[in-house]
Amino acid sequence: MSVAAPSPSEDALAHSAELRALIHAQIEDAGGAIPFWKFMELALYAPGLGYYSAGAAKFGAAGDFVTAPELGPLFAECIAEAVAPVLQQIGRDAQFFEIGGGSGAFAGDALAHLAALGAVPARYAILEPSADLRDRQRTHLQQRLPADLFARVEWVDGPMPGDWQGVLFANEVIDALPTPRFVIGEGEVYEEYVTRDGDGFGRTLHPADALLGSAVRHVEQQRGAPLPDGYRSELLPQLPYWVQAVAGGLTRGAMLFIDYGYTRREFYRDDRDAGTLRAFHRHQVTGDVFALPGLQDLTASVDFTALAEAGTHAGFDFAGYCNQTSLLLGNRLEQRLAAHEERAADEAARYALRQQAKRLTLPGEMGEAFQAIGFAKDVDFDHAFLIGDMSHRL
């Protein structure tokens, strides 16, 4: 039995109405319709109003969803175990670049464990577009870390400047990239646009441009069959450019992406004909992505085949692909759990640790829904994917 989410406050509803008015104005300025990706971009990132730009709580029990780092230290410590050998191969100039820092929980736990492993990066950079989240991250990390570790943390406004060596890490980032949506009609590819419908929003279709159209045809070619009429889904033709941009001048090191999604053949199955787009509000999932703009998260699953193509096209070697369970177990989850249990104050604390591990790894929780994919350049990163590699499915 699901519990209804609490109704938004009057202030929250006023905030949403302000963002709705901004989007309506953009639609009118564009002649009556904007691409869906533009609607998603505004809903999530409009300065001061978008879901990730405003000040409401996003993460944890008081927010709209729980990410793996918010559950406790086990996730971040396993990632630290995976990337520490890369940082050690590079040496004293190694840097760590986290995209989308969330509450700062990951950075705090990862840095502390990297210090224990003797693999502290020279700099820990966080790319976080939300000023509010930056403040929360800074406060958390000042409290969590000793001064010498905190001094290595800095916030950047874009990709790492110049050439650099180290590790790029992104957990639940690609699912929040503003995505185009396409529809197949009489064998042709159309792009979904958003219109104004009274006080709300509606949908209309425009012929897809060459970039989106050719990307859909590429999917059909790999499927071995055309997508049926009426098929609606998401596709990120700009993903290769995004990966190249965020990697920037990474001349030596590794990239690790974790998100929920599918391989291409699974993503574009005939029966997944409404796509994967959904909204999260107070731990409730809804298909009404137009409701409460600015108050709910919008997300679409990741095509990991497309991500594999993007990483290799950016000049990196493919290192491995597996689900989150395999990644964590292959990078000392059991040992990290045992170490924390040994230090736990009582049985209640040990029980909480075991529950944390279960949520991270059980098939009905995060274990199979979340996937991990890695890339390397002039370093060994294959060790991170020694258990449960699923590269053959890409």
Automatic annotation (TrEMBL):
Organism: Luteimonas terrae
GO biological process, one term: methylation
Molecular function, one GO term: protein-arginine omega-N symmetric methyltransferase activity
Lineage summary: Bacteria, Pseudomonadati, Pseudomonadota, Gammaproteobacteria, Lysobacterales
Annotated InterPro entries: NDUFAF7 (IPR003788), NDUFAF7_sf (IPR038375), SAM-dependent_MTases_sf (IPR029063)
Keywords: Methyltransferase, Transferase
UniProt cross-references to Pfam families, sorted A to Z: Methyltransf_28
Name used for this protein in its record: Class I SAM-dependent methyltransferase
